[in-house]
Automatic annotation (TrEMBL), chain A:
<dbReference type="Pfam" id="PF19295">
    <property type="entry name" value="SufBD_N"/>
</dbReference>
<feature type="domain" description="SUF system FeS cluster assembly SufBD core">
    <location>
        <begin position="177"/>
        <end position="410"/>
    </location>
</feature>
<dbReference type="InterPro" id="IPR011542">
    <property type="entry name" value="SUF_FeS_clus_asmbl_SufD"/>
</dbReference>
<comment type="similarity">
    <text>Belongs to the iron-sulfur cluster assembly SufBD family.</text>
</comment>
<dbReference type="InterPro" id="IPR045595">
    <property type="entry name" value="SufBD_N"/>
</dbReference>
<dbReference type="InterPro" id="IPR055346">
    <property type="entry name" value="Fe-S_cluster_assembly_SufBD"/>
</dbReference>
<dbReference type="InterPro" id="IPR037284">
    <property type="entry name" value="SUF_FeS_clus_asmbl_SufBD_sf"/>
</dbReference>
<protein>
    <submittedName>
        <fullName>Fe-S cluster assembly protein SufD</fullName>
    </submittedName>
</protein>
<dbReference type="GO" id="GO:0016226">
    <property type="term" value="P:iron-sulfur cluster assembly"/>
</dbReference>
TrEMBL record, chain B:
<dbReference type="InterPro" id="IPR027417">
    <property type="entry name" value="P-loop_NTPase"/>
</dbReference>
<keyword id="KW-0547">Nucleotide-binding</keyword>
<keyword id="KW-0067">ATP-binding</keyword>
<comment type="similarity">
    <text>Belongs to the ABC transporter superfamily. Ycf16 family.</text>
</comment>
<dbReference type="GO" id="GO:0016887">
    <property type="term" value="F:ATP hydrolysis activity"/>
</dbReference>
<feature type="domain" description="ABC transporter">
    <location>
        <begin position="6"/>
        <end position="248"/>
    </location>
</feature>
<protein>
    <submittedName>
        <fullName>Fe-S cluster assembly ATP-binding protein</fullName>
    </submittedName>
</protein>
<dbReference type="InterPro" id="IPR003593">
    <property type="entry name" value="AAA+_ATPase"/>
</dbReference>
<dbReference type="Pfam" id="PF00005">
    <property type="entry name" value="ABC_tran"/>
</dbReference>
Length: 436, 261
């Protein structure tokens, strides 16, 4: 933390915060240790983006009084539209200002031992389970200052646990709604899928604000055990005033499958990294992400898959649209470790530029320490093809509508992968809102 | 209902500074089918593209009028709204946009805002037209022209023609790459539109399409101009004798646009 932050969020403050939530001692200790480390370690240095002037210091750590949500029907429209109210049964977790205001899980799932709750409840009820996965094998506390600050100040999140052989058909949905403009989200999500289990999880970061200065510092750790399958979708939509750090980490064991479909729609300056380690043989990861940059925001995206296991298969697909004077870089990193024979690392990064003043770059990297592998990459930065526009317009379609079709088409490979229909539709809406 | 009139007067067109059309004159009226024939490289696609407003083609002289309105002043979408349609020789592929979404947007573009075609009505019309053209229904859910075979692309162009029912249709090499069965189906689609309200300009360098779609007028293009016009009997003569007699008659050595006459 910066000097002011260390003063403000002292060991005493953090201990009191932890005690007030009746956290297990290990968590209090972890927070305190992280606070102490955070002074000395450096900020991350995202490749090709200078973040020295980004404001990660202006925020409130705790919300003002948060009104409860008596019923989903009473949610404001911009939140409600993400929930499919026509459904009988939701597997839904709703955090408003980091407080669990609604939680539902199909009874047959809880009977089978599935856990889907907020992180504080999980700490209270499943302390040992959370301890096993919380910043241990996935993200490390001391990766850099932002991970340490996150660990010290974590103020909300979700915990998903799917026992062995349990296959969940209906997606789990988590909505993190920042209604208090100044409240920072130090949000931590953990998903554990035990052997032969399957789960689809979708998270939405939503806000009711635009310009108020605050911070989001979000970590998700995703563990797919042997032959488990995790499909992870997201719509990130933090406001223009929010400086955002997102770190989503996956670990796949033997025959595991992790699929990411990320809608990266923040309006403020953002660093977002998505790294998956394919540890097990025959493990698979599809990392798909779409982004729209607008206004004056600067964004740095990393999609990285590390193949450790033999015959492991990593495929990255990133599509970004850039308008106004927005800046973004898309790093695609495929890494094959020594011993990952017959591994495959593919990636495609494409950027569509809608304005002369926007800047977009694709930075494909392949790092290969093994001979017997396959790998490939494709990257491009381009504008809307005038001949495609001509073709559509020759059918009477206006220029604006033709561009809209081309842009949606460009983003479709990821949007179509978002598992919940209402969320997919909302992502389309968010895109629409950002592009026009 | 009487149709529209497309008039082309002394049209000169350049691509990248090179003059391709060197004074084309042509009038197509509702109810008339015109064929434009000519070997490769004589400016046929250039004429079609200039009429529709392709961004690469620059009109340097002459006029294009639709019912007296200046087409050259119109944006591409306005030309379509005015009743022009071009079935393209090389239609674009548009990833991520389904053929069905594209067709619906196209139809709605010709309707008033708030009067969009109801979804069920659209599906019924599209299915009927696809049946008529013996098309695989799955095509509607595939991305527009992406991975389509040559024949599928051509059928897709005719499908659009049938659904949009323009006043003037221009078909650029709609027959190329089609086997005889596909050619018959496509011809059936074109003939279905024949009426006083529909004028058609069929561009081809083969005669075979014209065995199924009989033109009222036939024009031969060489060196970026219409060098000969006649009736359907011209097709037969071209079929039996080729183009050489025209070249001889006019003293043309190279019929393409490349070398000036
Ligand atoms: N995009 C282009 N750039 C430069 N020259 C072109 C282009 N398109 C066509 N041409 C030239 O214009 C001439 C006429 O082409 P085109 O109108 O396509 O002929 P046709 O359709 O009769 O075969 C040819 O000589 C061709 O080389
Ligand atoms: Mg041609």
């Amino acid at each position: 933390m910066s000097v002011e932050l260390v003063d403000k969020y002292s060991v005493d403050y953090i201990t009191a915060f932890s005690k007030a939530r009746q956290e297990p001692q290990w968590m209090t200790d972890l927070r305190v240790a992280a606070q102490q480390k955070s002074e000395s370690i450096a900020m991350p240095k995202p490749d090709k983006t200078n973040i020295t002037r980004w404001d990660f210091n202006t925020f409130q750590h705790q919300a003002n009084e948060t009104e409860r949500v008596s019923s989903l029907v009473d949610l404001p429209d911009h939140i409600k539209k993400f929930v499919d109210l026509s459904k009988q049964q939701h597997n839904l977790l709703l955090l408003k200002n980091q407080t669990n205001v609604h939680q539902a899980l199909a009874p047959d799932l809880s009977d089978q031992g599935v856990i889907f709750t907020d992180i504080f409840t999980a700490l209270a009820e499943h302390s040992e389970l959370v301890k096993k996965y919380y910043m241990t094998e996935g993200v490390q506390v001391d990766e850099h200052k932002l991970t340490a600050v996150h660990a010290a100040l974590m103020n909300g999140g979700a915990f998903v646990y799917v026992p062995k052989n349990v296959v969940i058909d209906e997606p789990l949905q988590a909505i993190f709604w920042q209604d208090d403009a100044e409240l920072a989200l130090f949000n931590h999500v953990i998903i554990v899928a035990e052997d032969n289990s399957e789960v689809t999880y979708v998270e939405n970061y939503l806000t009711s604000h635009q310009e108020t200065k605050t911070v989001a510092n979000v970590i998700a750790e995703v563990f797919a055990k042997d032959n488990a399958s995790i499909s992870f979708g997201s719509v990130d939509h933090f406001a223009h005033g929010t400086t955002t750090y997102i770190n989503r980490r996956g670990i796949g064991q033997r025959d595991a499958k992790i699929e990411w479909a990320l809608g990266q729609m923040n309006d403020g300056d953002t660093i977002s990294e998505n790294v998956t380690h394919l540890l097990g043989d025959q493990s698979v990861c599809y990392a798909k992400a779409v982004s729209v940059g607008r206004g004056d925001q600067t964004q740095n995206f990393t999609a990285k898959i590390v193949n450790h296991g033999k015959h492991s298969d990593g495929i990255i697909l990133q599509h970004g649209v850039m308008k106004d004077s927005a800046t973004a870089i898309f790093h695609g990193i495929g890494k094959i470790e020594h011993g990952g024979t017959k591994a495959n690392a593919e990636q495609e990064s494409r950027v569509l530029m809608l304005s002369k003043h926007a800047r977009g770059d694709a930075n494909p990297i392949l790092l290969i320490d093994e001979d017997d592998v396959t790998a490939g990459h494709a990257a491009s930065v381009g504008r809307v093809d005038p001949v495609q526009l001509y073709y559509l317009m020759s059918r009477g379609i206006s220029k604006q509508e033709a561009e809209r079709l081309i842009i949606h088409g460009f983003l479709a490979p990821v949007v179509n992968e978002i598992p919940i229909t209402s969320v997919r539709e909302q992502l389309t809406d968010v895109i629409e809102g950002k592009v026009y | 209902m009487s149709g529209s009139t497309l008039e082309i007067k002394d049209l000169h067109v350049e691509i990248e500074g090179k003059e391709i059309l060197k004074g084309v004159n042509l009038t197509v009226k509702g109810g008339e089918f015109h064929a434009i024939m000519g070997p490769n490289g004589t400016g046929k696609s250039t004429l079609a593209s200039a009429i529709m407003g392709h961004p690469k083609y620059e009109v340097t002289k002459g006029q294009i009028l639709m019912d007296g309105e200046d087409v050259l002043e119109m944006e591409v979408d306005e030309r379509a709204q005015a009743g022009l349609f071009l079935a393209m020789q090389y239609p674009s592929e548009i990833s991520g946009v389904t053929t069905s979404d594209f067709l619906r947007s196209s139809i709605n573009a010709h309707r008033e805002e708030g009067d969009e075609i109801p979804l069920m009505k659209f599906i019924k019309e599209m299915d009927a037209a696809m049946d008529y053209l013996e098309m695989d229904k799955n095509m509607a859910q595939r991305y527009l022209n992406e991975g389509f075979s040559g024949g599928e692309k051509k059928r897709n162009e005719i499908l659009q023609l049938m659904l949009l029912k323009p006043a003037i249709g221009i078909l650029d090499e709609i027959d190329s790459g089609l086997d005889i069965d596909a050619l018959k189906v496509v011809s059936k689609g074109i003939n279905k539109l024949r009426s006083e309200a529909f004028g058609c300009l069929i561009i081809t360098h083969y005669q075979r399409l014209l065995n199924y779609v009989t033109p009222d007028y036939v024009h031969v293009m060489m060196q970026g101009r219409v060098v000969k016009s006649g009736g359907p009997e011209l097709v037969e003569r071209l079929e039996s004798e080729g183009y050489d007699w025209i070249k001889q008659e006019l003293g043309i050595e190279d019929e393409t646009v490349g070398i000036d006459a």
